[in-house]
Amino acid sequence: MKRVTRMLPALIALVTATACAAESTSAPVAQEPARAQVPVQVNVQAQVEPATLAAAAAPTEPPAKAKLGIADITPMGENTEKVGVGFPIIVTFDRDVKDKAAVEALLEVEPEKPVEGAWRWVSERKVIYRTKTYWQPNQKVLFSARLSGLPGNSAAKDVSRRFAVGAKNISVVDTRKHTMKVYRNGKLAKKIPISAGKGGLVRNGVDVYLTTSGVHLTMGKKAVETMTSSWMGVTDPKDPRYYKEEIPWAVRISDSGEYVHQSAGYYQYLGRSNQSHGCVRATPAGAKWFYTIAQRGDVVKITGTKRKLQWNNGWSYWQLNWTQWKQGSALKS
């Protein structure tokens, strides 16, 4: 399952934010209760061998401490959420990983419906699992980390989590035709008029008002999201570029502030022209429906703009082809 090559350099910095940017631990480990010290009664009439006395007097070794543990696993387990067919498994360790190949060999992924997958290291503490093709819908996937098998780490607790894969939701956004077609389990479920990024604000050679073209994954959602102009340094309400709006039915699709959300008015542009600051604006009914069915890890393919989605912008890992993805593994193929 893990055919891989040498690891790439560390992950580059996150991309420039778009205009739709929003404002914006692992659970503590319980300590075992201290055991009471029970006084030892000695029978002075008993004969004790000198060697036994020496052994009793010798200091005891302190219990071994784990040198590496897991700080966080994404997504959440089967009893908390269902995820989309594009979902990644993101594992964050509690310290830098020195021997990445040894640790990666102790990570296992077992889907009920087999598919090839591989890990990719994106930092000294974070590794991400992606499949070659999308997961099959409506199944369970078991992740296990046998960290106690790492030399010198025998005190570590082995960790496992089972994920629940839901329906196969794949949305296709055509920014030139101003439509979003949502397919559920292979069938067209809804066609929604939209308005995408209008363009026209270039920063560091990037038009940040354009929606990014590429394979996005949904990362989260809010019934109401506060969006402001602070991302571009505009915080004065007197500035004509200033805005602060409460936006309904917001489903996030990148780290650079792109969402699929209800249009805040301007309904005349939906299905006709691109007028947003980078997000995909939809009709109230369409946005609410999409919000309702959205699962983290659902696929949103956007086409028609000159701005390309970067693979490290949010969960946009499907922007890399399979050969490129495997190059981020620490194991040799």
From TrEMBL:
Keyword Protein transport: no
Pfam families: Big_10, YkuD
InterPro entries the record matches: Big_10, LD-transpeptidase, LD_TPept_cat_dom, Transpep_catalytic_dom
Signal sequence coordinates: 1-21
CDD domains for the chain: YkuD_like
Active site positions, chain numbering: 261 (proton donor/acceptor), 279 (nucleophile)
Transmembrane annotation, as ranges: none
Keyword Cell wall biogenesis/degradation listed: yes
Pathway assignment: Cell wall biogenesis; peptidoglycan biosynthesis
Domain L,D-TPase catalytic: 169-303
Record key words, sorted: Acyltransferase, Cell shape, Cell wall biogenesis/degradation, Peptidoglycan synthesis, Signal, Transferase
Designated name of the protein: L,D-TPase catalytic domain-containing protein
